[in-house]
Amino acid sequence: MIRDITIGQYYPAESRIHRLDPRVKIVCTLLFLISLFIQNSFLGYVIATVFLGAVIRLSNVPLKYIVKGMKPVVILLLFTVVMNLFLTQGGETLAHFWIFTISENGLRTSVFMAVRLIYLVTGSSIMTFTTSPNGLTDGLEKLLHPLNRINVPVHEVAMMMSIALRFIPIILEETDKIMKAQMARGADFESGNIIQRAKAMIPILVPLFVSAFRRANDLAMAMEARCYHGGDGRTKMKPLRYRGRDRIAYAVTLIYLVVIFIVGRYIPFKLWVF
């Protein structure tokens, strides 16, 4: 399970999505996530599926790698589907047993929420798979640069996010090593009920937190030894510049967003729902 977590990891490849400016990928990802919540129709999700599929195809990231990253959110996905399925009422009753009732609105809402969650995680993952941590930091800092006028420490915020993304794979690797060491000593993390499994995780959490704090302290000392004092006066080795492909990506994403908005607002809802 630890190996399946791909959040924050960069997948090196040569593709059109990899070559885009980090600012384009951040903005387009936000617009895609917004599009998932401004419509609630079958046709809209078909368009979103085609758009997301095209992006995955252009990114050259293997589909099995993306699907593997969905495994850690399966529990959250099932919980969301079940809660919406049984707690949302309205429309025709499809099934009823004991105190549980499945209605037409509940089924539709649970399906749409599941699709939204899957697309939300997948869309965000594509951005991190195709953008290096340094690129994300530079792009975020550039996008938030106007906030410097109101004394917001944009560079420091972007730096913290970059460090957090870099630490995720390291902490996951450290967790995997600790779990294997504990299993070699006879620890059992698979059997027992939920409470017993939670108690079995304590021997992992304690050394993991100690290791994380030690790494953070070493990083802070290294930054101080190199006279790091924030972003004042710092220059970039690779300054960000918009190119033709970046403007095309903006245009395609805006066209997609307009189409989704029109479908969600002006096409009769009853023609396209489940």
UniProtKB/TrEMBL annotation:
Q: Where in the cell is it found?
A: Cell membrane
Q: Name one Pfam family in it.
A: CbiQ
Keyword set includes Transcription: no
Q: How does it sit in the membrane?
A: Multi-pass membrane protein
Q: Any transmembrane segments, and where?
A: 26-54, 74-99, 111-130, 248-267
Which InterPro entries does this one have?
ABC/ECF_trnsptr_transmembrane, ECF_transporter_component, EcfT
Supply the alphabetized keyword list: Cell membrane, Membrane, Transmembrane, Transmembrane helix, Transport
The entry's family comment says: Belongs to the energy-coupling factor EcfT family.
* Subunit structure comment from the entry: Forms a stable energy-coupling factor (ECF) transporter complex composed of 2 membrane-embedded substrate-binding proteins (S component), 2 ATP-binding proteins (A component) and 2 transmembrane proteins (T component).
Provide the function of this protein. Transmembrane (T) component of an energy-coupling factor (ECF) ABC-transporter complex. Unlike classic ABC transporters this ECF transporter provides the energy necessary to transport a number of different substrates.
Q: What is this protein called?
A: Energy-coupling factor transporter transmembrane protein EcfT
